[in-house]
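Quick look at the format.
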Amino acid sequence: MKYLIKNGTVCFEDGLRKSDILIEDGKFISFENANSENIIDAAGCYILPGMIDIHTHLDDKIGNCYLADTYKTGSEVAVRNGITTIFSFVTQQLNDSLANALKIAINKAKENSYCDYMWHLTPVSFVETDWKYIFDLIEKGFKTFKFYTTYKSAGLYCDYDMLNIIFTKLENYKVTILIHCEDNDIIESANTNIDLKNSFSHTLLRPKEAEITAINKILNLSGKYKIKIHIVHVSTCEAAEILNNVKDKIATTCETAPHYLNLTDDYLKRDDGFKLICTPPLRNKLNVKDMKEKALDEYFDIYASDHCAFLKKDKNNSESKNDVRLVPCGVAGLGALPHLTFKLYEDNLDNALMQMGKRLSENPAKITGIYPRKGTIKIGSDADFSVLEIGKSEKNIQSSISDVYETYENFKTNLNFKYVFLNGVPVVKNDMLINADKMSGKCLIKNY
């Protein structure tokens, strides 16, 4: 079907300008005057490229709890807020295969998503047959892997010697390696002679030195190889400074999440502080202030939600009342990501829109290897975009539609997604799904 979007201000990579947009067969085909039976008047609105959240945890079990959001609920809150592509994770379990983990994820997501999707892969076994399978997946189009420098008890821990081997094996492939950076030795040596009933103690169990140390060690390793490294959820201003200082020397990018720019560890001192326990933990006011300043100075290549939502009943379970270590780690954030990114830059409207286009669309697509198919408004690219109306009304931010604690309670937004298009078809109108029975999202690799 052909659509003509008229009179909108379009967020192109090189700037904002008035332009018509003609789309056909799921692609952008022209920005000149054109004709179509299907016309949408976008006067007074802005046209943004489809946004990408490369860091979401969906439809999986973490620890003893199942995540609150499935691909269906997670993708709904995503696409209703202009996010047209999400990345989640396929994690190999101990005594199981990566192939089986991928098969399970494929079956959960297929025909069950309102937006397009892809996965980062986390293998935990590395014998010869494992490497053969990994290389085969790369040939088929999987381009991102994630590894952890902590979580030993969960079977995810990857020590620096093993990471050195992984970098060696993958150096000549066009892949990006995501790293969760918290030094396991520092975490295991943290003082546990503290009040484990107090949510604030979570910050003492996972101190900022763990992140800083792990990032320094990863950079020392990765500097030896021609391999792309992406550091996820940077939470400390010191780590952000380190990464900014090496970005011209080492192929490294990084992200932070909105909760590290908007929430302080004072929230953890409240009686309901358990609601906001996440890893890495929230940091102090001075750190948050500095992180926000660094964000405005473009220290972070992208923003991602690290959406890891748990049901209220699991966050508020009786066992965790006596031991903060038993509280499921993670907060909701998918539906909040575009709104809080806009709010960061809202003092300059044009800059806010361009930053959204850069750090929520173009850069995420480039880091994950899906650009220019996704993440931009160009002829031949997938016609994923939003028709955004600003300032007509104000509403509460909603991070998830599941029964979770809202991370950004009392945070407001004046962004209205008048339309959201996925692959050339309108799927959202005025913030709501057009057809809730039609889940047209696809895996970005054919036959998956």
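Next, a different chain entirely:
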Amino acid sequence: METLNVVLKLNQAICHDEGDGPGSAEPYLWAIFFKIDGLSVQQNGVSLAGEAEFRFSQGSHENLPNYDVDPGEVIQIPSAVGEWSTLLKPIVIDDFQGNIIEVPGIVGVVAVLMEEDNVTDTGAEAGHQGLNNHVRTSINDFIASINLLDFMNSEDPQADLQQMIDDLIKSIKDGVEDVVEDAIVSNQNWLEDIWAWINKDDKIGDKVWTFNADEIVAANYNIPLNERWRNEGDWEINGDISASEVCPAEAMNALSVRNLKKQIDLDKLRAFRKVLNKKFPEANSWWQIAIKNSPFVMRELQRDKKLHEDFYQLAKSVENSIDNGNKLNDDFYDKVIKVLERFEKSRSKSLRLDSKRMKAVVEKLRGNDLNETLKVLSSSKPVVRRGE
């Protein structure tokens, strides 16, 4: 199994009906991203050792850009609240008979959409931390409860694992309201508790999504996330999971084989990458930008076959330049600009911004051969602004 470069993102909250009586609604979102995979969990005899990895969203009250919401409004969820990028690696298991089994890693997100009323800011954030602790404990207890012998002896281990995951999701959802309310009450004084009791913050809805690496690959590396709650009004949340192989070249090749029935010369590109590391190590910061955006690029190529074909031709041009004295003509740079302009229309903020910045750099590279291009890139690191 390949290690996957995965991005989980909650993009939008939509208010169909704010349901808060007179005045506007004041929604806020708690999101907890997690994964159970071979980077942090390993076999220890008949059990699993290690814990899940988590990414907890920032803030409570007013953590969404629009906290005065009326029916029909769409709220763009900021990255600090609704996005996580991570690697997903299989868990390697020895079946006690000398056979090595790779179990696909699991990734997921817990989303709780709330509406602000009389709970204090301190109380709401205490509820947030109570929720985080509840989810962390539930998932790590789930990992610790796994007995590998039970799976080895099972007639349908995949069904047994799915049942355990279903039980985990139920445990998380069942505990949400109690742990949040208890944490709020323990962090407010009695007057604040009475005020909150008169009109406490409302839970619009909660949702737990989980997928393993095999399911992500089977879905062509992109899975939409959607939930609608007709509670405390009528609300909807949208997002997606995007993934690719970690190496952008391998991701590009795999997608091209699937969708275009064409392939690139990975051996040639790997050999060139070794030269790149040796002669131009400072240019690696640009490679890291490519790795970061790889899931978003692959998603755009899947959606637009013409864009995919153009991107594939650029990869072949780089291949050919390695054999032909590293020459890159003006037509190559013109195509790069056109591809970047199309990436600027992506739903991914990261890809939009990096494509815009790269366009300015590409204009400075025009007329250079591949070696000269790498020298220029080595002397100027990509701009990354704080919070991106």
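The chain has two domains: 4-244, 247-379.

See the schema section for token definitions.
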